[in-house]
Amino acid sequence: MPYGSRLAATMTRRLGRACVYTPSARLALYLALRRWCRPGARVLMSPVNDDVILFVVLAAGCRPVQAPVSVWDGNIDPAAVPEATWRGIDAVLTTNLYGIPDRVVQLRRRCDQLGIPLIEDAAHAIGTHVDGRPVGTFGTAAAFSLSKHVAATAGGFLAVEDARTRRELELLRDDLLTPRRLREDLTVTLRPLARSSVRTLHLVRPVWRTMQRLGLLERDAFRMALHAPRLTASALSAPSLTAYEPWVRVDLHAFRVRHGTLVRGQLALRMAHLDDDLTRRRAGVALLAGTAWASPALRERAVPDGPLPLFRVPLLVQGRDALLERLVDHGMVCGYVYDPPLDDYAGAEFVEPSPDPSAARWFASHVLPADPLTARRMTGALTRERVATARPPVREAPTAAVT
Ligand SMILES: Cc1ncc(COP(=O)(O)O)c(C=O)c1O
Least CB-packed of 7, 48, 115, 392 within 10 Å? Predict the structure, then answer.
């Protein structure tokens, strides 16, 4: 039986697509890029994205082309992408930022016209639908992350269109996996339990501050250090996951480890609770979407099926950076802040800058990604802190495809 096939079968039942199990979504994305993009391929992506994903694209030997984004949700705005850019790209990589779907119907249509692959990053978007169809079933391939939705610290999938492609990708994956280590398996199994104990015992603030003081956090700022000269040197070996490992492994060092049954058994148990997790997320999203801080992407878009089961809820606030510090004193550490946008962070040597970076800059510097599972505590803290809403500078027509 192929590695992880039981977990993959569970995901296939949910999605209706052939799935390959991977130890992380970043490895799934790397596999997709290697399978569908030749070295040197130009990949259109959102600059409001995890820096790890930028390094995955670079590791695959591709050139990241930064797209204009919507000021409403930070996702690619297909209508704002210049025609010359469309004509010069070889693939599109979506983000589905915080679980809000990309304009995937338009993107799929455009990719079909151009004859290029659409790769969906659905790491934040398990359970999100567009026109009644799950995100992750529109593209040539889609990556999912179990680290996000069921509080695991491992696990991912690559969903593809047919079983033959799945078998091909299983072989490619097996070549990239590193051998199992018992110590790693124990760490991956125990870390989620340690995290939930810290939360239950109200120790978030002291633990976080201590880690900050001891230099135990991998990032001093929202973005990891770029180490530009080393990155330039790594390009000589691209495509190569190993050459880019110092960047790609940040936040998840076991991203390519062949975990044993201990880890996979725990993931199977966690996946059995995925629907409960999504239900609790919907309740938190409903609460936060009704507040003054909710991004218009949440408040003003028609969602006939009810609230989306978001990974994080994009709130738009003034004084975001100082607020994040104060929220630690309320026992809340908000991660997943992607500021500055990737073109400002990495520069033109490593990425092709967006022709219009203004919306990405505004969104990235004002968004507060709130965990819907702690919605009540967050609204209490924001009210006590008298947080002012940030209003997007321009109003767009609501072209999103959220249903
Ligand atoms: C948008 C996005 N895609 C992919 C990933 C990678 O997921 P994983 O940690 O499972 O590799 C992340 C990680 O945070 C992410 O934020």
Answer: 115
The CA distance from 59 to 234, in Å, is 8
What separation in Å is there between the alpha carbon of 42 and the centre of ligand 1?
Answer: 21
Q: What is the dihedral of CA 90, 96, 101, 102, to 10 degrees?
A: -30
Are 143 and 124 in contact, with CB atoms under 8 Å apart? no
User: Residue ranges of the domains in the chain?
Assistant: 274-384
Reported as type and span, the H/E element at residue 145 is strand 141-145
Q: Ligand 1 site: residues with CB under 6 angstroms?
A: 24-26, 49-50, 52-53, 95, 121, 123-124, 145, 147, 156, 252, 255
Taking the chain, what is the end-to-end CA distance rounded to the nearest angstrom? 38
pLDDT tens digit string along 122-161? 999 999 999 999 999 999 999 999 999 888 889 999 999 9
Reported as a single tens digit per residue, the pLDDT across 27-62 is: 999 999 999 999 999 999 999 999 999 999 999 999
Instruction: Choose among 8, 57, 44: nearest CA to 169.
Output: 8
Query: What kind of fold does domain 274-384 have according to CATH?
Result: Aspartate Aminotransferase, domain 1 (3.90.1150)
